[in-house]
Design brief:
The protein has helices spanning about 25-30, 45-55, 70-80, 95-105, 125-135, 160-170, 185-195, 210-220, 230-235, 255-260; strands spanning about 5, 15, 20, 35-40, 65-70, 85-90, 105, 115, 140-145, 150, 155-160, 175-180, 200-205, 220-225, 245-250. The longest helix has 13 residues, at about 70-80. Helices cover about 40% and strands about 20% of the residues. The model has no long low-confidence stretch (mean pLDDT about 95). The chain folds into two domains: about 5-40 and about 180-260, Rossmann fold; about 80-180, HAD superfamily/HAD-like (Rossmann fold, 3-Layer(aba) Sandwich). The chain binds magnesium ion. The site of magnesium ion (MG) has 8 residues, from loops.
Length: about 260
C-alpha cells in the first residue's frame, strides 16, 4: 500500500527554470490517487514561496505539502533551544522568513547565538567574515544542508555545503546540526505532519548519497531518477546504504513502477 509519494525537487521535478518533461502531468495524475508531497534541501525559499514556485511548472500544492530545509532549520532551533533566539543568517529570503515566522528569531549581525547557513547566491566575503566571527565567539552552527552542488540547466553550481565549507575550514568547527537530507529530520517531520508511516511511503530523488540514503535509512521505498545528478553507472558503485529500490529514467514514469 502506498499512502504517499514524496518528490525531491531539483533534478527530479525541474532543472533550474526548466520543468522536466511529463513530470507535472504525472504529479497531477498521482494527486487524484494518493497523497503527493515535496521535500527539498533548498533553503532559499519559504514553504509559501514554493507553492508559487511549483505553480510556475504547472504543479498545484499547498503549503503543508511542502517541506523545505528553511522551515526545518526554524523548527529545529525552536524545538531544541526555544523561540526568540538571536540568529546570524547566510542565506536567502526564505531562510530569513521561516526563522522569523516559525522560530520568532531576531536576525542580528553580531553577538548571535546561532549562525544558520543555507544556499546564498549573494554570498560575500563580508558575510563569511561575520559568520566566522559569530562562530568563534560561541554561536552554534546550523547548516540547512551539506549539498556540495546545486544541479542547474548548464551543469552544477556551488551548493550550501560549499559555502559552509569555507566557514568550517576557517573556524575549525563542524556544524552542530545539518538539517537537510541525508539527515532524516525533514522527512520524519513531513510524514508525521501527514500521519504517514515510512514503510507506506515512496521517495523519488536524484542523488544516491542524499535522497536514497535518507529513504533507505527511514525505511521508505526509494526510487532514483536519472534526470538530475546520479547516472546509471553510479548505482553499481554505490554502497548498500545508497542503493535505490528502483531506477527509472524520469519521474514522469513513477506511477507505473509503483503500481499507481
Ligand atoms: Mg535533487
Amino acid at each position: 500500500m502506498v499512502s504517499a509519494i514524496v518528490f525531491d525537487l531539483d533534478g527530479v521535478v525541474y532543472l533550474g527554470a526548466q520543468g522536466i518533461p511529463g513530470v507535472a502531468g504525472e504529479i497531477a495524475r498521482l494527486q487524484k490517487r494518493t497523497k503527493v508531497l515535496f521535500l527539498t534541501n533548498n533553503a532559499t525559499k519559504s514553504r509559501q514561496s514554493y507553492v508559487h514556485h511549483l505553480a510556475r511548472y504547472g504543479i498545484k500544492a499547498n503549503k503543508n505539502d511542502v517541506m523545505t530545509a528553511s522551515f526545518g532549520c526554524a523548527h529545529y532551533v525552536k524545538e531544541k533551544y526555544g523561540a526568540g533566539k538571536r540568529v546570524f543568517v547566510i542565506g536567502e529570503q526564505g531562510l530569513h522568513d521561516e526563522l522569523v515566522k516559525e522560530a520568532g528569531a531576531k536576525i542580528v549581525e553580531k553577538n548571535a547565538e546561532f549562525v544558520v547557513v543555507g544556499l546564498d547566491r549573494q554570498v560575500t566575503y563580508e558575510k563569511l567574515d561575520k559568520g566566522l566571527h559569530n562562530l568563534v565567539t560561541g554561536a552554534k552552527f546550523i547548516l540547512a544542508n551539506s549539498d556540495p552542488t546545486l544541479p542547474r540547466e548548464h551543469g552544477a553550481s556551488p551548493g550550501s555545503g560549499a559555502i559552509a565549507a569555507a566557514l568550517i575550514y576557517a573556524s575549525g568547527k563542524k556544524p552542530d546540526a545539518v538539517i537537510g537530507k541525508p539527515s532524516v529530520y525533514l522527512i520524519k517531520k513531513l510524514l508525521q505532519m501527514h500521519k504517514v508511516k515510512p514503510r507506506e511511503a515512496v521517495f523519488v530523488g536524484d542523488r544516491l548519497e542524499i535522497d536514497i540514503r535518507m529513504a533507505n535509512e527511514i525505511g521508505m521505498k526509494s526510487v532514483l531518477v536519472l534526470t538530475g545528478v546520479a547516472k546509471r553507472s553510479d548505482v553499481k558503485r554505490a554502497p548498500k546504504s545508497d542503493k535505490p529500490g528502483i531506477v527509472i529514467e524520469s519521474a514522469a514514469k513513477v506511477g507505473k513502477v509503483i503500481g499507481i
